[in-house]
UniProtKB/TrEMBL annotation:
Monomer. Its EC number is 3.2.1.1. This is alpha-amylase. SMART domains: Aamy, Alpha-amyl_C2. Gene3D superfamilies: 3.30.70.2330, Endonuclease Chain A, Glycosidases, Golgi alpha-mannosidase II. Keywords: Calcium, Carbohydrate metabolism, Glycosidase, Hydrolase, Metal-binding. Substrate binds at residues 822, 1246. The active site is at residues 820, 1244. It is an enzyme of class 3 (hydrolase). It comes from Oryza meridionalis. SUPFAM superfamilies: (Trans)glycosidases, Glycosyl hydrolase domain, Phospholipase D/nuclease. InterPro entries: A-amylase_bs_C, GH, GH13_cat_dom, Glyco_hydro_b, HIRAN, Tdp1. The lineage of its organism: Eukaryota, Viridiplantae, Streptophyta, Embryophyta, Tracheophyta.
Length: 1426
């Protein structure tokens, strides 16, 4: 445990050696952001000096002034050169002179952890500093970063040489430089950058020798987080102790930025203000333990600005400043907040600074925290200033307090000349503790019971050993706590006046028949009533007979049950009501029922359900109403009779069980395929069973010999067997697989993507399916499996999982990934049918389990149209063909024999598609860049200069440049090449995305690879090949299709790189790949592809299609829905039903999904005429108001289903920890199958719908998704935070958002647009209610005591039922219907640090090409010399 640090031992030394100003009244100003180098910054700041001085700033932290490889200044090189991207030395000196005139000290940003060299050392790295002042050799660089010095005394700053501060000559040179900055340049304060990189004792030495007036260090350490959702821990003592230990090691000479306070504060303002009081009642950051050395801030150039590594919530900025500018510590104001685009915070911040100065608040001021709860924080500082932040209403009482400043969610008061009144305390009184009732109070003012006298509540303690009975008198106040001395049990303290050292956890007040509970625990989930959390500090909860209360202690829950109330009044009451106790019990029981009904989201279902009223105790009117079908489930046409329903389910289970008892595992494995295709209704190939079903379902069997039709505007369900002979056989009741395949004789080809399948013998089929070992294998031989003796026309394809999503980027460790789509493509001569379903190709999922089926037929074209394969989504035209061919290309890219599917799809017209395909493909993706104009494109004959306006952009490919490190580190002329490269890159035009165009050159004279493509850097305005620098090559796997497609004239290719990334790689500062963006446009022969293309071109075209960047997962959902305007205030429902809910589901993921679906906060006024701002729904909004309901069956529903747990335990997946994490949000709803005949059969559907209703209620619209995506980050993608980097690292590439997807998935989204956007001009208007959902809508909310069918719940149910699997029964788990891996998506966080590096085979390829290129050039020179 850390302790409050006293300044007494440090002040004398600090005054003698500098570093800390004793009075502690500093206010710092960070005078730059990450983009400041782009402006004439020193001159810009000079204009603001007067305003800074008048506002009260004592010191301005300036950006690094030295010459640097990065324009931001954090890769210094020549320490004594102060001509930088921020301005010249002359401009800097003018700024410093003006600051001195106005008493604003200048703070230098001292970057001495690392330094970029000028020349190469012995190992080829640039770690020598020749030709500039402070010309160190390799001994000045740590051995950890490639030098010859000692091991680093701190963390390594990757990518550049780290300075070895243990070397005496290094320290001497740094001290001389710091003194020069102070005495010759005019800096007075120092800010030490990245102090984790070297020992704090060196900081102490530098301060002692250079004597700055004030010094602060950036000791940025990660806060404490806890899995599984990685929320910030309440207790951050370890974090702030590490910062304090560092400051202590400097001898107290150096302050530190209070990252602890920032981390806690930016979470607290989101509705968790209880975080701002630590267990000892002090501020929870460094401010609370060593305030005079705490430099507080809410944002800086790393955490905010355009980097945004750890941003403060933008809508809570003033709350943050209201906190740090009224509290102890040394506050810092960020440039972007004080001088923002609209100066919206300038006045408010300046006012708070004025109050701080007038009230003489300083770094050592005393804080008394008054309130710290979710929506309110208030404190008094030095007994002369009072403040509050948060939504909660609060103000100090008493005439001496005057409001000094206020704004959105903050207010500050200061004292007037009036002394404080003892009768008006600052702390508002608590309703139950302020005036506890006396122990012996029996006067006339005592509140009477309903019966007019005394009584007792019977409380039954639910303890592990034996339930104890406690009696509570109805005129007392009780304190409820957990006894640590007696073990985990509850203890009642019946003396309200007695003072107890421990804090009371809960209070029970009794008055007559009323029993009320209030608690003061800091945890939001510490006390529950009937399973629901009781909010701290809210209104007392009225307890009724039968209510169960539980308290959390050390991870375990203990509680009590309110059994009854017994009146103890005299004969008068007894005579009037001899059965008083019975009446009280009945009244309280009825009150509890009525309360439960009124709080239910679906009162009708609550009344109908047997859990609402105990069997045998139903009211006669309730029973009669049930018999008369008064209480009906919504959207059902048939009344629910619980008894009849139970009998029906038992009959179904018995029916299926009889089948299972007559078949064996081998029979299923062998014969399921035949019945799947032939339409047999049994689960095996027994003739007896088929006869039974033929008698029962003759009409249904005859119907299956016919086909089925769909225009694609809705989806259907599969037809289940054994649900009764009275079911009407029509398409609306379900379709069968034979109907979908009919007529089979006309099928030419079939493509299937599924998880598991049983294969029909008589069809030419390509199946892409899951195999854990093959899909993770890097070998091409693992991609396919064929032939099969009984299936000569079958080819199994195993799509590869990319290495980048494997744990540790190691294929051998594999990772979280699954090939999970359910797609069928049926090709006929005149049409192509595309089927998207949630059912795998196994009989059980089509016969016994509810699944969704969407399909549409598309006509054949007169000639192939390849342009349709590259279209973009445009409402109302769907990019269906593009998405379909792209997804199939992903699956078959490494199987050239199947690439003909690209050509086949081009033969059909998909313009009439009624829906939009939504695909997910494993990988880590960045946003697709916008089109960039290019001047050069790849050509076989010569450098082809062409205007991009004459070409049509088709897309981009993310690839890399290989061989760069070999080129610049090994040849003898590497130095001259580096210089030439630096000169050329400095002249290159850098576009808005930070890239510059390069020239792609065909190398037809390289024997090693006839398709090799060189990457050249040149001055494009005056291009000559002789003056260009050969940077490297395209990877072999890319060049093998780029070159032929370019030679054929089908496509043109242009290249772009990030120049600084290339330069850093050339200098050896990084080992990561150099990215190259390959832009693809139509070639001169694009329109003639259908005439010119040959079979050998199909694999090339397939590789191109698979490589083009597409929006996938969440980003694809956003891409489609962003074309429509969804009026937020008209939303009526938003729900998602899935058979699997991911392990790492948390508010962040739910908010990401809702944002992609168009959800936005209601603070923006809704308008159907204005386009909504996408992506504004955040985790903070999600926590305050959940956006979506998740449908998942309860364990009771599963146990009562067909065959009970057996059929569902390998079909449904909801981890127990996910349920426990989300249960308090109230987002779970029961998944009741619809129509009624499907009750008892498990649902394997993945359906989402967002519904809206027009203002007049005449039209319902919205969108519906169905397909294979379960509700998990593995399926939809996890939004990754920016790559972890040292806070001062100069990034070569902007760190935009990335999406990590684990699974192959495919679904369809059907859109009913708002009336204003509908293109329908005649006929009946489409309505979202036309789409029949497979579950009851609106879905009923879980009732108290309901528990979803989690994996743990099903295991417990199995154990309770003692289900034993014997040899004579079929084990349904053997034939796994669904792959439900342990979706441990938390591993995704580790992947965010992965940086791609060149593979060994790429290095070998590049080295071979370099040798032959150099040899060819030498021969040309020799020939020219002759």
């Amino acid at each position: 445990m850390g302790q409050m640090v006293s300044d007494e031992n440090f002040e004398e030394q600090a005054a003698r050696n500098g570093g800390i100003l004793k009075h502690g009244r500093e206010i710092l100003f960070q005078a730059f952001n990450w983009e400041s180098h782009k402006h004439n910054w020193w001159s810009n700041l000079e204009e603001k000096v007067v305003d800074l001085a008048q506002s009260g700033f004592t010191s301005a932290w300036l950006p690094p002034p030295t010459q640097s490889l990065s324009p931001e200044g954090y890769l210094p090189q020549n320490l004594y050169c102060l001509d930088s991207c921020y301005g010249s030395l002359h401009d800097l000196q003018a700024l410093l002179r003006k600051m001195k005139e106005h008493n604003v000290r200048a703070m230098a940003d001292v970057v001495i952890n690392h330094r970029v060299g000028t020349t190469q050392g012995s190992n080829g790295m640039y770690n020598r500093y020749d030709g500039i002042p402070v010309s160190w050799d390799e001994h000045a660089v740590t051995s950890c970063s490639g030098g010859k010095g000692n091991k680093s005394t701190g963390d390594n700053f990757d990518g550049v040489p780290n300075i070895d501060h243990t070397q005496p000559f290094v320290r001497k040179d740094i001290i001389d430089w710091l003194i020069w900055l102070r005495e010759s340049i005019g800096f007075q304060d120092f800010r030490f950058d990245f102090t984790k990189g070297y020992s704090a004792k060196f900081v102490k030495e530098y301060i002692e020798q250079s004597k700055p007036l004030f010094a602060v260090g950036e000791y940025w350490d990660s806060c404490e987080y806890s899995p599984p959702d990685y929320r910030l821990n309440y207790n951050q003592d370890k974090h702030r102790q590490r910062i304090i230990n560092w400051m202590d090691s400097t001898g107290g000479l150096c302050a530190a930025f209070d990252f602890t306070t920032k981390g806690i504060l930016q979470e607290a303002v989101k509705g968790e203000l209880w975080r701002l009081r630590d267990p000892e009642g002090k501020p929870p950051g460094v401010m609370g333990w060593w305030p005079s050395r705490s430099v507080t801030f809410i944002e800086n150039h790393d955490t905010g600005s355009t980097q945004g590594h750890w941003p403060f919530p933008s809508d809570h900025i003033m709350e943050g400043y209201a906190y740090i500018l009224t509290h102890p510590g040394i506050p810092t104001v960020f440039y972007d907040h004080f001088y923002g685009k609209d100066d919206s915070f300038h006045g408010g911040i300046a006012k708070l600074m004025e109050i701080r100065k007038c009230q003489d608040i300083h770094s050592r001021s005393a804080v008394k925290i008054l309130e710290a709860r979710s929506d309110l924080y208030s404190a008094i500082v030095d007994d002369k200033l009072c403040m509050k932040i948060g939504d909660g209403s609060w103000c100090p009482s008493g005439p001496e307090w005057k409001l000094a400043a206020s704004g959105d969610r903050y207010a500050v008061w200061h004292k007037t000349q009036f002394p404080p009144s003892p009768s008006s305390p600052l702390l508002p009184s608590l309703p139950m503790e302020a005036e506890p009732p006396p122990e012996n109070r029996h006067d006339d003012h005592h509140p009477s019971t309903s019966g007019g006298g005394l009584g007792y509540f019977h409380l039954r303690l639910l303890c592990p050993v034996a339930p104890l009975l406690l009696l509570l008198r109805s005129d007392r106040l009780y304190s409820l706590s957990l006894s640590g001395r007696r073990g985990p049990r509850l203890r009642l303290l019946a003396s309200p006046r007695r003072r107890h050292g421990r804090r009371r956890r809960a209070l029970l007040s009794t008055s007559g028949c009323a029993l009320r509970l209030t608690h003061r625990s800091s945890s939001a989930d510490a006390v529950r009533v009937n399973g629901r959390p009781l909010l701290r500090g809210g209104c007392p909860a009225d307890l009724a007979v039968g209510d169960e209360v539980s308290l959390l202690r050390r991870g375990a829950r203990y509680g009590f049950l309110v059994e009854k109330f017994v009146s103890c009044e005299g004969p008068k009451l007894a005579a009037a009501e001899p059965c008083g106790e019975v009446l009280v019990l009945r009244a309280e029981s009825l009150r509890k029922r009525l309360r439960a009904i009124s709080e239910s989201h679906d009162p009708l279902s609550f009344l109908r359900d047997s859990h609402c009223v105990e069997s045998g105790s139903d009211d006669v009117r309730v029973k009669k109403a049930r018999e008369e079908d008064v209480f009906l489930p919504l959207n059902l046409n048939t009344p629910i009779d619980p008894v009849a329903e139970e009998n029906l389910l038992r009959e179904d289970c018995n029916l299926v069980q009889e089948k299972l008892e007559h078949c064996t595992d081998s029979a299923i494995a062998k014969n399921d395929t035949d019945e799947l295709i032939q339409g047999s209704k049994g689960c095996c190939n027994g003739n007896t069973e088929q006869k039974e079903y033929s008698n029962e379902n003759t009409e249904q069997q005859d119907n299956e010999n016919e086909g089925c039709y769909s225009d694609g505007s809705t989806f259907f369900l599969n037809r289940l067997i054994g649900i009764g002979s009275d079911v009407r056989v029509e398409q609306r009741s379900g379709v069968t697989l034979p109907q979908l395949l009919h007529p089979m004789d006309s099928l030419e080809r079939v493509f299937i993507a599924t998880f598991t399948s049983d294969v029909p013998q008589n069809l030419p089929v390509t199946i892409a399916c899951h195999n854990k070992e093959r899909c993770w294998s890097a070998s091409r031989e693992s991609r396919t499996a064929a032939p099969f003796g009984s299936y000569p026309n079958l080819l199994l394809v195993y799509p590869q999982f990319p290495e980048e999503i494997a744990f540790g980027k190691d294929r051998k460790k594999q990772g979280v990934a699954c090939h999970h789509p359910k797609l069928l493509v049926l090709q006929r001569k005149d049409s192509m049918r595309v089927i998207v379903t949630s059912a795998n190709l196994v009989p059980r999922q089509w016969h016994l389990i509810t699944n969704t089926v969407w399909w549409q037929d598309f006509p054949c074209r007169t000639s192939p149209d390849y342009s349709a394969l590259f279209s973009k989504v445009e409402e109302p035209k769907s990019d269906f063909a593009t998405q379909l061919v792209s997804f199939i290309a992903f699956l078959i890219n490494e199987v050239p024999s199947q690439s003909y599917w690209i050509n086949e799809i081009a033969k059909y017209n998909f313009e009439g598609a009624a829906g939009y395909l939504i695909a997910s493909v494993p990988g880590i993706y960045a946003r697709s860049p916008h089109y960039l104009e290019s001047n050069y494109c790849l050509s076989r004959k010569q450098m082809l200069h062409t205007e991009s306006a004459h070409r049509m952009f088709l897309g981009s490919v993310q690839t890399s440049v290989v061989g760069l490190s070999h080129r610049f580190h090994i040849p003898s002329d590497a130095g001259s090449k580096l210089k030439a490269l630096s000169v050329l890159l400095s002249k290159c035009h850098v576009n808005m995305h930070g890239t510059t165009e390069v020239i792609l050159k065909r190398n037809t004279n390289i024997p090693a690879d006839a398709n090799a493509v060189s990457v050249l850097v040149a001055d494009l305005d005056e291009f000559t090949e002789e003056d260009s620098v050969h940077l490297g090559f395209l990877p072999r796997e890319v060049a093998k299709w780029v070159s032929p497609l370019s030679d054929l004239g089908f496509f043109t290719f242009s290249g772009f790189i990030y120049p600084r990334e290339a330069l850093e790689a050339a200098y050896g500062a990084t080992n990561t790949k150099v990215q190259l963006l390959l832009y693809v446009s139509k070639g001169p022969e694009f329109s003639q592809i259908s005439r010119l293309i040959q079979d050998e071109h199909f694999p090339l075209l397939c590789s191109l299609v698979a490589s083009l960047k597409r929006s996938l997962g969440l980003w694809r959902l956003e891409e489609v829905l962003s074309h429509f305007k969804w009026p937020e205030t008209l939303e009526t429902d938003f729900f998602y039903s899935a058979s699997s809910i991911g392990t790492s589901i948390n508010p962040q993921f739910i908010a990401s999904f809702a944002s992609a679906a168009g959800k936005r906060c209601n603070q923006d006024l809704d308008s159907e005429e204005s386009d909504p701002e996408w992506g504004c729904w955040t985790a903070n909004h999600e926590l305050k108001k959940p956006s979506i309901n998740l449908l998942f069956p309860t364990i009771d529903r599963v146990k009562n289903g067909a065959c009970g747990i057996q059929l569902s335990r390998h079909l449904l997946s909801l981890p127990e920890r996910t349920w426990q994490r989300l249960r308090s949000t109230g987002i779970f709803r029961d998944a009741i199958p619809h129509p009624y005949e499907r009750i008892g059969h498990p649902m394997h559907v993945k359906v989402a719908q967002r519904r809206f209703e027009s203002r007049l209620g005449k039209h319902s619209f919205g969108w519906t998704y169905c397909g294979s995506h379960n509700f998990s980050p593995a399926a939809w993608g996890q939004q990754l935070p920016p790559p972890k980097a040292n806070p001062t690292e100069a990034r070569a590439v902007s760190s935009g958002p990335r999406l990590h997807i684990c699974n192959y998935e495919l679904g369809i989204i059907l859109i009913i647009p708002p009336s204003a956007m509908s293109k329908q001009t005649s006929g009946r208007k489409r309505d979202i209610n036309d789409i029949a959902l497979p579950f009851v809508v609106p879905p009923p909310q879980y009732k108290p005591g309901d528990r979803p069918a989690t994996s743990l719940a099903m295991r417990e149910a199995m154990a309770e039922a003692r289900i034993l699997q014997s040899n004579d029964l079929v084990d349904l788990s053997q034939d796994t219907d669904e792959d439900i891996p342990d979706e441990d998506d938390e591993h995704v966080i580790e992947l965010s640090d992965c940086s791609p590096e060149e593979k060994e085979e790429e290095k070998i390829y590049a080295e071979t090409l370099w040798e032959q290129v150099d040899s060819s050039q030498s021969q040309r020179k020799d020939q020219a010399g002759q």
